[in-house]
């Protein structure tokens, strides 16, 4: 394997102070050498196929997020066995280098900042950690036109907002053909809401990415949208989150299913999206899905509580512990029967198809 290459030097802060929203950022001419990939259900097959088809040494850095939650991830070993490029779970602060595939470790968002990987157990987005959107946003803000975002197979719509951010900052958007995806929701959402540059089946993904990596990028990146900068600050806990939320959204009538805080509806977001001040983020579909899970858990907890109350009431009735003797025991038994009816109604609701 050839010696590791270095990224083209980025402009210094003195050369490019206009990184704030509303200004252009001069950057040197370079290649599109940062590829951020998001996948969920059905994505492992595509990632393994991609790892086998990529050239060695890889002329770019690949950063991969797969929805694994807290479960142990074998993805680096599996991808590494298919190809010759190194694949690893990075350490926090590890420099981003071309020729390497970085996979987000379980239960950690993987971001990039100042040319290095940043890992954090920050607030979940779309009830996922690691999530795709945090990586894509950070790549968009860090690398601008040098970035390529890729959305693969998966349910719901994580990755759509992040892919929008990459396009807004001058990068390119690539999506797996939904007809080729095991779970078409994520690529279909991206196609519906993002000006996608390429939509390809898994068999053409490696060739498409390598063709794009070789393209030079423009010398000046588009201005960073103020809303994107504010949303990133909320997600990483920087500055005053309430100030940022009020700048980019409006209080909704919904509560965050992850922390019970108020959700703000983000202005003009398509698909419709929400955030709370602790940093949790949801699309409308993601919110409905997470809320359904929370409701289901609450109903099962309610059933458990009712069953326990019924059992306790029957114990009281048998023990005859009421101060009024048998009369009190009879009343307790009647209450136990009413509780049993409530238990049966709730159980039928929970097990109904």
Protein model, in words:
The chain is built from 10 helices and 15 strands. It is of the alpha/beta class and 353 residues long. It has 3 domains: 193 residues, Methylesterase CheB, C-terminal domain (Rossmann fold, 3-Layer(aba) Sandwich); 60 residues, no CATH class; 64 residues. The protein has a 7-stranded parallel beta sheet with strand order 4-5-3-2-8-9-10, with helices on both faces. Strand 12 and strand 13 form a beta hairpin. Helix 4 runs parallel beside helix 5. The longest helix is centred in the last third of the chain and has 36 residues. The protein is elongated, with a radius of gyration of 25 Å. 40% of the residues are buried.
How are the elements arranged and paired?
Layout: E1 25-26, E2 34-39, H1 43-53, E3 61-66, H2 75-82, E4 87-88, E5 101-103, E6 109-113, E7 116-120, H3 132-143, E8 147-151, H4 160-168, E9 172-176, H5 185-193, E10 198-200, H6 205-213, E11 220-221, H7 226-236, H8 241-248, E12 249-255, E13 262-266, E14 273-276, E15 281-283, H9 284-319, H10 326-351
Parallel strand pairs: 2-3, 2-8, 3-5, 4-5, 8-9, 9-10
Antiparallel strand pairs: 1-11, 6-7, 12-13, 13-14, 14-15
